[in-house]
Write a structure and sequence with these properties.
By secondary structure, the protein is an alpha+beta fold. The protein has five helices and five strands. The protein has a five-stranded antiparallel beta sheet with strand order 1-3-4-5-2.
Length: 169
């Protein structure tokens, strides 16, 4: 792609980024799309990379004998990571200073191979931090599957850059 057009004014350029602290509005709910369909390969790779030897994620024969699901389930840490990851491009890409911590995290329903995950995030608190270049934001994250069933709920506190300090457009 040419850096400069052949003639005329330079085109306006937009770089994908998350939101600055000043752009975070209480009560706003962000719907993150597209969703992410989870495959068996995703689950096996994540589970083995993280050294999780739980048969519920790896051993079909053993899982079939385990009530109440009688099937392998997707690793809940994969579910958490994927649903937070779905929010990055819209909320924190390039504007995140740090994840400060997670509040209560729950997995009300299992995720199975072939499920598609959709993420939603709500800004539930903003506050100044002791850093002049950033502020704290508390998100409530929600994950649902393709049938609208809630599979993840949790809170995450982050430190977000201030536009006023970083000079962003």
């Amino acid at each position: 792609m040419n850096e400069q057009p052949a003639s005329g004014p330079e085109p306006r350029r937009v770089v994908q980024r998350g939101l600055w602290f000043e752009e975070m509005e209480l009560g706003t709910v962000y719907e993150h799309r597209p969703g992410r369909t989870v495959t068996e390969a995703d689950n096996v790779l994540f589970t083995t990379l993280t050294m999780n030897t739980q048969p519920l994620h790896l051993d079909q024969a053993a899982s079939e004998q385990l009530p109440p699901f009688h099937d392998r389930l997707v690793n809940s840490m994969f579910t958490l990571s994927t649903l937070i990851g779905l929010s990055v491009g819209q909320l924190t890409q390039g504007t995140l200073v740090a994840n400060l911590g997670f509040g209560e995290v729950t997995f009300p329903a299992p995720v199975r191979h072939g499920d598609t995950l959709y993420a939603y995030s709500e800004v539930i608190e903003t506050r100044d931090s002791n850093r002049p270049d950033a502020g704290e934001v508390l998100f409530r994250h929600l994950g649902r599957n393709q049938d609208g069933k809630t599979v993840f709920e949790g809170e995450r506190r982050v430190l977000i850059k201030r536009r006023s300090h970083w000079g962003g457009r």
